[in-house]
Amino acid sequence: MPQTQTELSNGNGSLYHFLPQFFLTAPPPPPQAQEHAACQQPASSRTTAAARHRKHMHLVGELPQKSMAALAKQYGPVMHLKLGEISTVVVSSPESAAEVTKTRDAVFANRPASLAYKILSFGGKGVLFTPYGSNSRELRKMSTMSLLSAKQVRFFRSIREQETVNMLRSVASEASGSIVNLSAQIMRLTNDITARALIGGKCRYQKEFLALVDESIEEMSGFSLVDSFPSWAGLIGSLNGVRRKLTRLLAQIDLIIGSILDEHRAAWELSGEKEEKDLIDVMLRIQHEESLPFSLTDEFIIAIAMDLFVAGSDTSSTTLQWIMSELIRNPAVMKRAQQEVRETFGGEGKPAEEDVGKLSYLKLVIKETLRLHPPAPFLIRICLEPTELLGYQIPANTRVLVNAWAIARDPAVWGDDAEEFRPERFEESAVDYKGTHFELLPFGSGRRMCAGMGFGVATVEFPLACLLYYFDWKLPEKEIELDMRETFKLTSKRKTDLCLRAVPRLPLP
């Protein structure tokens, strides 16, 4: 029988089945007829759909976005699950997504931060999960206007062009031997672009910084008993040593990025002027000017630097790999995209990023990839106060997951070919990924929309165009079909590396 609002708020009952990332314990929603009946009652008497706690790990699987999409088809676009001790509502329709990210955006303005993120960001001093309030508004304003503005993205164009050429030469060298591990090439590319934009091109600590980023991503990607069972946090943290490990990692982050800050300050003193060559320089200038209503300490700068790198490099790498995967699986799309790129850049021309704006079909390819493979399948929020969502009463502190992956593959929204890779669907469509169309939310929407969208898209477009311009791509010999399995970590990425044959067609620059 459905829970009452009081029962939902108290979170009575507990299950002890665990799932990586979520540690999901899922009571099945009530029968469809019961849910519909609840929807027809006056709003004051409606409750979130839920049922008695029972063990249903077999309903969840390794890819929560897929399993929850299947549940939503059976039980509707708003359903209640118990994730460990965490009361959670999953929404899976454009209408419910609009309620969360637009209509009631202020109520759902917070994101839940994991223990790993809290510790590694000095108690939540980064941008990604800072509780909504005056500080978070100022940090987001700084991000959108000073760090990741369109002007700043243009400023880093030469970095993208230089690092793309480096990647192309590496691909050509690897292709002369045998198969190219394109996943490794792309990851190195996005890491190098983001690192140069963030900390500069000649930083002697870059290798150590990248190693810390990789370790931080790994720590934030795994499952967490502490996050799923907060009432046991102290005991669990002591038993499994996670707090000690994260604290040691934070000390390393503080040391290495602190040294990078000192190096930048020393360069300023040596030159006698505060030249802004990278994003660390920008943040140090803001710190020096004391232009924020709070002190932008080194801890804030370090936490924001980690946020920018993790959010910028990992998502761009994931997206580029999925694009190339889909192009290999769809030869007609590959042919049309290559034809456009080669006609635009010329037979023996030198590609320049300024010409990317002419590649209209390539942009559709990117958009279609973001639809089928959003880097973050879920938009995660916390309800700050009791509210109503499509007629259901949602208690304060309820966690809300917007299943952007499910919405983007819903046949009711996209038609019977929703699962097919077909960029042409956007040729006569105004739907975009900039947060105003709730059927397509790869970068989120509202107050918590990704501030780095412009930087991320720019990191994808030009390298992709060059990969298609200079090389023809094929599956390895004897490989009939590309492995498209995915894994759910910090982003939804390929389970296996993308390894292809690259056939050079023009001399590299």
UniProtKB/TrEMBL annotation:
GO terms for cellular component: membrane. Its cofactor is heme. The keyword Iron applies. The keyword Coiled coil does not apply. Belongs to the cytochrome P450 family. This is Cytochrome P450. Keywords: Heme, Iron, Membrane, Metal-binding, Monooxygenase, Oxidoreductase, Transmembrane, Transmembrane helix. Pfam families: p450 (PF00067). PANTHER family: OS06G0641600 PROTEIN, OS08G0105600 PROTEIN. It comes from the Eukaryota. It is found in: Membrane. One of its GO terms (molecular function) is heme binding. It is a single-pass membrane protein. Its main location: membrane.
